[in-house]
Design goal:
Elements lengths: L7 E4 L3 E6 L15 H12 L9 E2 L8 E7 L2 H12 L4 E8 L7 E11 L4 E5 L7 E13 L2 E8 L6 H8 L23 E9 L6 E5 L15
Parallel strand pairs: 4-10
Antiparallel strand pairs: 1-2, 2-4, 3-4, 5-9, 5-10, 6-7, 6-8, 8-9, 10-11
Amino acid sequence: MPVSDKDILFEDNHLIAVNKRAGDIVQVDETGDESLDEMVKKYIAIKYNKPSDVFLGVMHRLDRPVSGVILFARTSKALARMNDVFKNREVKKTYWAVVRNKPAALSGTLVHWLLKNTQKNVVTAHAKEVAGSQRAELSYKLIGELGGFYLLEVDPLTGRSHQIRVQLASMGCPIVGDNKYGYPRGSRKGSICLHARRLQFTHPVKKEPVTIFAKLPVDGFWERFEEF
């Protein structure tokens, strides 16, 4: 499905942010499916009548089954500066996750060492460092309950592959729909209830604070949590 005005969360001459749909891939992979960055390039080309190649820089990613805020650079200067911002952890990322099991502690910090099996695209969490692992840390808090499902707000302090998914599963709270990490069944739509809710950072050119906020998907379930 093409990117349209309703998908755009923020746009200026330097940056563009999109509310990613669950199921979209950020960059092309072995599936050959059209990637989100190519869809955004087409959107820019049509909107601004650009006949030549559109520049679009990718500085972070979301897993395919995850929805929410994703930010792209529209210039090479913005890309270079934002790469530094992400590398230096000067971006505050906030996610919402729905789980079926209530966490034992209503808020807390999780620290694990994550090891990725690249052949199977699965990450395992370890309580202590193991060879080849990377330290992962996040904080979470319970912010709502609806119909026996629990809404967690999650702030990852590191940016590891599948981090939120495997760390929440490791405390007994797999994300709804995420059968790769322990939820009993997957979603027919190929989505999980993990949403990049908010990005906060200092604009790389204007040096002003920016907060980008993404509404929840409308799928008959997720949007019921919008009130929180």
